[in-house]
Design brief:
globular; DNA-binding; Arc Repressor Mutant, subunit A; mainly alpha; 2 strands; two-stranded antiparallel sheet; 185 residues; homodimer
Amino acid sequence: MLPPGRGGKQRDVAAHGMYRRRDTRRGWLIAEIAAELRRYGADAQHVGHAFAGRHGLNATDLQALIAVMDAELVGAPITPGRLGEQLNLSSGSVTALIDRLERAGHIRRDRDTSDRRKVLLRYADRGAALAMDFFRPLGERTDQVTAGFRDEELEVVYRFVSAMGASLREHRDALRDEPARRRTD
Amino acid sequence: MLPPGRGGKQRDVAAHGMYRRRDTRRGWLIAEIAAELRRYGADAQHVGHAFAGRHGLNATDLQALIAVMDAELVGAPITPGRLGEQLNLSSGSVTALIDRLERAGHIRRDRDTSDRRKVLLRYADRGAALAMDFFRPLGERTDQVTAGFRDEELEVVYRFVSAMGASLREHRDALRDEPARRRTD
DNA sequence: ATGGGATCTCTAGACGTTCGAGAGTTTCGC
DNA sequence: GCGAAACTCTCGAACGTCTAGAGATCCCAT
């Protein structure tokens, strides 16, 4: 039952750095918010996995489809290279991925007319319908939740998630730029 | 440049259901919050992927290690079966996963003394050190962000993320319980 | 007590995704 | 025009995952 090391202090989880001291209301809040964000990400993955499975794709395929729509809807279609960056995939895997999605009728390949090395990915009707099925119930749930918050409260939430997101991206970039550090392996 | 089909309505993204109408401040806020949460999850995956890669594991291994510590730190060590549920893995994959982590010295297998069918997963020192290296910088960043919020504001944020998390889990469970629905394939 | 069903972990083979290196085009700078 | 750089695609190998089933152990009804 007891964690190994530091015998005895069973709930001194702060010593492990994973959790924060919860002995003040504020500390407890911060710990719970961080934990909830972590769980939210995990559950979102589960939802994506389950939904993708129902429709004959895997989680990566669904992520890719969303990224393709995301990019195209803001007027800047994505290329295979950048899709690979977003999904942490090598170029070979991206080709296979696009082949699958194209074969299934979810997206199309278009040559860029100005730079003919590039391929632009565009969603097909089938892919649009699938993404809509995925996002609609989530949007409805978001509506239900946000209905319980006043405008000023949503401003606070927005400020918070923006700051957390920016900080996490900083961390991600820092990890990328410091690639060679070895541990005590 | 134009999305295919439905010629002309280039920016009518609301028609796709992915995004919400942004013509009011409140609508814009909600859309941005939802988008930021989505990006946060994706970026968290990237961070995990990058960190795991540096230490000779894959993203699944790191998730598993975190889940094992998470469970043990609250005094209820996890079993291979439940770990598979949390990570969306089959029993066979879980065995391979545990073998990898045990071989690398990150976790240990213990037989449950009261129910000897079960195996309890416990982290080893090596795994604890790794998890600490992963979480410490994230905790520091969380501290920096939360420093810019008053207690009442954190209460609002907590209420929001709790509600969003609960709603998402409801959706996940609904997906699970309605497994057979087929689309117009 | 004892037998049957349920629960849990593990094994084995096949499948599919991913990776890594390299080839083939097209573009841009000199 | 020529060489370097950017981008996508091909191919074979490696790895993680899945499915099906075997082997233990526990629980409960008889």
